[in-house]
Amino acid sequence: MKHFIMPDDHDFGTPASKSQNMITLNIDGFDVSVPEGTSIMRAAAMLGISIPKLCATDSVDAFGSCRLCVVEIEGRAGTPASCTTLAAQGLRVKTQSETVKTLRRAVMELYISDHPLDCLTCAVNGDCELQDMAGAVGLRNIRYQAPQNRSISNHFLPKDTSGAPNHSYIAKDESNPYFTYDPSKCIVCSRCVRSCEEVQGSFALTIEGKGWDSRVCAGGTFDDFLSSDCVSCGACVQACPTGALTEKSVINIGTPEHSIITTCAYCGVGCSFKAQMRGDELIRMVPYKSGQANQGHSCVKGRFAWGYTNHPERILKPMIRDKITDPWREVSWKEALDFSAERLQNIQSTHGRQSIGVITSSRCTNEETFLVQKLARAVFKNNNTDTCARVCHSPTGYGLGQAFGTSAGTQDFKSVDDADVIMVIGANPSAAHPVFASRMKKRLRKGAKLIVVDPRRTESVQSPHVKAVHHLALTPGTNVAVISAMAHVIVTEGLINNEFIQTLCDIDAYKDYITFISETRHSPEAVEHLTNVPAKTLREAARLYATGGNGAIYYGLGVTEHTQGSTAVIAIANLAMLTGNIGRSGVGVNPLRGQNNVQGSCDMGSFPHELPGYRHVKHPEVRAIFEKAWGVEIDPEPGLRISNMLDAAIDGSFKGLYIQGEDILQSDPDTKYVAAGLGALDCVIVHDLFLNETANYAHVFLPGSTFLEKDGTFTNAERRINRVRKVMSPKQGYADWEVTQMLANAMGASWNYTHPQEIMAEIALTTPSFAGVDYEKIDSLGSIQWPCNEQSPEGTPIMHIGGFARGKGTFIRTEYVATDERTGPKFPLLLTTGRILSQYNVGAQTRRTPNTVWHREDLLEIHPHDAEDRGIRDGDYIRLASRSGETTLRAQITDRVAPGIVYTTFHHPKTQANVVTTDYSDWATNCPEYKVTAVQVSPSNGPSKWQKEYISQAANARQIEPTTT
Amino acid sequence: MKVYIPRDASARALGADAVAKEMSKHAQKHSLEIIRNGSRGMSWLEPLIEVERGGIRYAYGPAGVEDVVAILDNTSPKALGPTDDLPWMQAQTRLTFARVGVIDPLSLNDYRRHGGMQGLKKAIEMTQNQMIDEVIESGLRGRGGAGFPTGIKWRTVAHETAPEKYIICNADEGDSGTFADRMLMEGDPFCLIEGMIIAGLATGAQHGLIYIRSEYPDAIHTMQLAIEVARKEGILGTPFSYGTHNDDFSFDIDVRVGAGAYICGEETSLLNSLEGKRGVVRSKPPLPAISGFMSCPSVVNNVISLATAPVIFAKGAKYYQGFGLGKSRGTVALQIAGNAKYGGLFECAFGITLGEVVHGLAGGSATRRPVKAVQIGGPLGAYFPPSLFDTPLGYEEFADNDGLIGHAGIVIFDESVDMLEQARFAMEFCAIESCGKCTPCRIGSIRGVETLDRLAQGAPDAMAILLDLCETMKSTSLCALGGFTPYPVLSAITHFPDDFKVSTPQEEAL
User: Is B295 on the interface with A (CB under 8 A)?
Assistant: First the structure.
């Protein structure tokens, strides 16, 4: 564990070389073998010799500007920079000599001659590479002085000696909520600029001016960091060797003293972070270089938006109430749990075993999720468990399970480095999976081709130095038609990978499929009128995917959240199999998971028909494993899905629900229907950090713990099991797994887990794909991608190598069936929904951070033509209505959306975009059709009736009785 | 009657256009054919008008509008006799500049008549390796300043496998006192085009880019017109089959214009600028020959280097190699400027001494005062005192005296020059033109100016600090700008110590 508390995050100065050719050189008398292409600086670092450096850091390419890293090489003239000079066979290098000592000291003297030297009061005192290097080179004095009658040229004094303004001085930029830029401390090493370009891919920073006037500049001359293209990923702050770019938290509190490696609780990328602490106070989150999912990069959410963890609105005491119209009453944990247990037991005795259920969270740990579904199965004795994955990626589980045999993405993120053609369908990684997007863009800048299938011209279609070769701007709801038409082109133009199909796929199914897909009605020309995608473009895109080398597909909720979500996933799987793009690095089918543990919550048996490991409850041999482990009999009948629970609630047969870490009222479609269902329940237990929207209908509120306050694991979109480590004690007393255990025990169970690793042991014991997983192994490997078992003891980065998990890959017909949700005279526009970078999901976390400076409210994107027709101007309040309901929000006029399409996000409860979405859902999995709703838009004066009622109801429902003490 | 009036920018600056206009008034009467040629390189005689009589070109200059009638009547006091007989012309070995000032720069026929395209014709019969061997054997070294063997550079590019390769011509001629590139582009643009095609054939590159500084509008215009002519004639942009070379080899050239930065004459900054990026220096490796323009293998050569290829192929490597001294083979295009009685372009074999240039060719200072110093090789070149005037022009010979030939610009100063001021100017020039990437250049040059000011104010510690700074800049700068700025400074200190003997305020008080 010490390794993870004090991680070895050594900076080798320059990136690793991928060469297989090893060469040997001698540095300071020691031989070292390194891959060809390794810099002398890195080779020395591998020997443990740190050559002084300032502009070099191993996250970006060597730059060679600081000139501090000079060395001497036998037989070569001069003093080359070790960062830009490559190691060569037989080279003899001296990293320390009288000459280089003198030169380094002289260069350092120049640096420091233009530095304020306020080290003792500087925020990065003790955490400053400039300071370190001054020490390393033995700098003892600065001899440069001003000539008579004028000041020495400098960038740090606002005024010269005569009191006139110093034109080289630039004031601090504090516009970003999380970090400051103090140009007076900048040494112009360009590490920030290079990180912004090479690591993040935003190209928001540049060096303005030349020579002495060279200054780091965000955006154009008149921009500051906030107004520039900066996405606040923080790569620049991390790269800065001085106090020029510094986290405000460090300025306000001080430098951290210890670090613990943990995993981000935002999106499905699952970035590893060093939580940098001072005592039990979190100072900053710094992405962990050895984190395999993110390799040292992060986004604005993971790095900076953790302030919600100590937001004043966080509830720290359990609360109960008899009726939802009563104010909340703060009680002891025991009272709250006894109250809950009694209510649930009474309901079951009155309304039967099936009358209560649970909803597991895709944000909680695997261990917590496992316990919640176990609560339903082993304590409630039913299968009434579902999860928020229902409303996002359930079609992925179904579709990929059918085609390949595994309900998960096929690749690791690293695989994208080897992709030649990247097809992004119904996903906007730049906004929703930013760290993956950066990695993808890096590959695209190196020459891979991009195809984007999305109704909107998203940031992923075009961003600095990245442009999609083809953007198929389809009509929402026609994914299956578009993807099938691509398959039609590939089959009819003979672009299939016959060898792959013949050896690895089920031939009967394949024959059936090609008969089907070859029919002219699937041709791009035949479906053009439905999809709005020009046939020529579609054909070109299909050819590019089939023939452009390694083809990788990444898709998101734009694929799954449709009535044909599962069909679309199958269609994608078909494409990959037709072209043989499965089973090696650079290819594959990769769902981009929305929440941090969507994959894990699905793996952990959260669905009502499946026990952990995607095994149907109807199979007695599967039930037997759990019955043996848990000592109970397991109901062989699948339980209720979320929508079934709500239906049953309205019917009166379902009465109690324990919801851990999910806000179904805001996140699930057709808000009014959800509200009606929740309102009909006798006992709603909400286990969350905040009084979320669902809690307005709750009788018990159990305060939750944040990811910083507990141990466990998250499983990201690449099936990577990452450790979540407790960096501070739960502010409300208990980790969530402990609360679930207490509730179970209050209902008569006798669970006695003392640490989540015991839960993981139970998971490993019962679930084959986790058989080889334990905390010790995760600690030693850093992370593990399941399946991890006897065949793959260290996990499986890439699946289906040399054969499919299910045996043979299965082609399945993908008949396009239009959704019943159609535009008409009353609702002539199609609404589709999505996310933006700074906010996360229902916004419960990010809305409680300064991230709101980038997104204060949800906006409706509307094309100028549609706006003009309706007399709507940019920024106007508009009414957005569907057959389900209506809401109001402000309009943003943009041609990112096509005419006839409008778009919004669902981050703010005030907007309640889901009042508008309908109850249509995926035929196979009930995943709601968030992405297609027929709507009308019209000017409005203010909030809708629903919004007003809702706001007042919420205010009432959130009242907490004053405590008498 | 053929009349030649230069279109060269130096002649135009001195009134050549007005002379041409006046001349055209007499065109009909004298049945004149007015040809706007390049410059012969005798700047003190510009505008130099030539009238062809009996197949011999007679020179008149410097000519004004008022001289036109007399020139046509052959009664002008500005008559200088046959141009080729002038001592300046007689003393030269014009290989690269053989046609400059002689031909109509935009007439391909003229170009061909005067030996143009002979080099390419020979080259196409050779294999790539033979071509490269020829250039190596000629001993041609980069005329931009660094003196790197051109053939070796070409060989590196030729041996790279890449979908695209580029021939980049560096015409960002920013050194003070230099104008050879400009004169060649304005006077014989097809020669550069031919040289670039030869380089393309030798290396397998099919695209050429000429990066010309924005301060050269005439050169830009002339090159663009010449490229148009060459395209029309099927020399550029059309696939042609040439001997042993690839059947569908074609070569095309584009002109790109700089934006006023001296540093973009440095090859890697030039590449960044060509790519549309900030003109900052790239660290090497990778060498541009391996990863240059758009990360493709690229030959980056100076105008003169490329324009010398045709004559090497036309007359053979041995012929070219036969001129010169030591490891400096062939000819050097001296550009004599500053306080010189006779300034201009003079092409001759390496080996001529500096004294012969200053006192012989240049005729001493224009102010007729004794020459005190000569700066050779642009603003980063060393100042040579008369005591070093016996140094022969050669790369190694100059390096041995802590100097450089560079692009062969020679700037003459008389005794009135203050060498401390010149040292300060070197640092100031560096500060203004620094790209700002590396520390010694970005901060060091500013500190250099300040320290020289302190030195001038009599600060006793300033000299030691300055010498340390020079050593730091020399050893640690990323490119030649910071790395060579100490040369003029140190040469001024070494050779002109009296100019740095400043009494301290205390001494003055005594």
Answer: no
| B41 reaches A (C-beta below 8 A) | no
Put simply, whether B454 touches A (Cβ < 8 Å) is yes
CB atoms B439 and A65 under 8 Å: yes
Distance CA B475, CA A80 (A): 9
Residues B485, B445 contacting (CB under 8 angstroms): yes
CA-to-CA distance for A115 and A133, rounded, in angstroms? 14
Contact B438 A188 (CB under 8 A): no
pLDDT tens, residue by residue, A357-398: 999 999 999 999 999 999 999 999 999 999 988 878 889 989
Q: Do A106 and B469 touch (CB under 8 A)?
A: yes
Could you give the ipTM of this predicted complex? 0.92
- Is B278–A206 a contact, with Cβ atoms under 8 angstroms apart? yes
Chain A nearest-CA residue for B438: A65
- CB of B473 within 8 Å of a chain A CB? The answer is no
**What confidence score (pLDDT) does residue A250 get?**
96
Q: Strand, coil or helix: what is A715?
A: strand
**DSSP per-residue letters across B413-456:** EETT--HHHHHHHHHHHHHHH--S-SHHHHTHHHHHHHHHHHHH
Q: Give the pLDDT score at B510.
A: 55
- Please give the average pLDDT of every successive group of 10 residues along chain A, which has 965 residues: 56 94 96 96 95 96 94 94 95 96 97 95 95 96 94 94 92 96 96 96 94 94 93 96 97 94 93 94 94 93 94 95 93 96 96 95 94 96 90 86 88 95 95 94 95 93 93 94 96 95 94 95 95 96 96 93 92 96 95 89 92 93 94 94 93 95 86 91 95 93 96 94 95 95 95 96 94 93 92 90 88 90 90 88 88 90 95 93 89 94 87 81 84 91 82 87 70
**Residue A300 contacts residue A307 (beta carbons within 8 Å):** no
Q: Say if residue B355 is exposed, middle or buried (CB neighbours under 10 Å; 0-12, 13-18, 19+).
A: middle
Q: Dihedrals φ, ψ of B488, to 5°?
A: -60, -35
| Cβ atoms of A621 and A364 closer than 8 Å | no
Taking contacts as CB-CB distances below 8 angstroms, the residues of chain B near A70 are 475-476
How far is Cα of residue B434 from the mean position of the Cα atoms in its chain?
21
Contact A85 B446 (CB under 8 A): no
* Closest A-chain CA to B476: A67
Which of B284, B434, B443 shows the shortest C-beta gap to A113? B443
Contact B439 A67 (CB under 8 A): yes
pLDDT the model gives residue B334: 97
CB pairs under 8 A between A and B: 118
**What gap in Å lies between CA B173 and CA B74, rounded to an integer?**
38
| Mutate which: A53, A210, A213, vs B, most B CBs within 10 A | A210
B452 to chain A: closest CA residue:
A147
A423 and A554 in contact (C-beta within 8 Å)? yes
> pLDDT (tens digit, 9 = 90+) per residue, A814-870?
999 888 888 889 999 999 988 888 888 888 889 999 999 998 889 999 999 999 999
Cα(A492)–Cα(A520) distance, integer angstroms = 10
Q: Which residues of A touch B (CB under 8 A)?
A: 62-68, 70, 78-79, 81, 83-86, 99, 102-103, 106-107, 110-111, 113-114, 143-148, 152-153, 187-188, 190, 206-207, 209-214
DSSP string, A300-344: HHHHHTTGGGG-TT---S-EE-SSTTSPBEE--HHHHHHHHHHHH
- Name every residue whose Cβ is closer than 8 Å to that of residue A791 and which is 6 or more positions away in sequence: none
Position A751: which residue type? W
Using one digit for the tens of pLDDT, what is the confidence trace for A643-670?
999 999 999 999 999 999 999 888 888 8
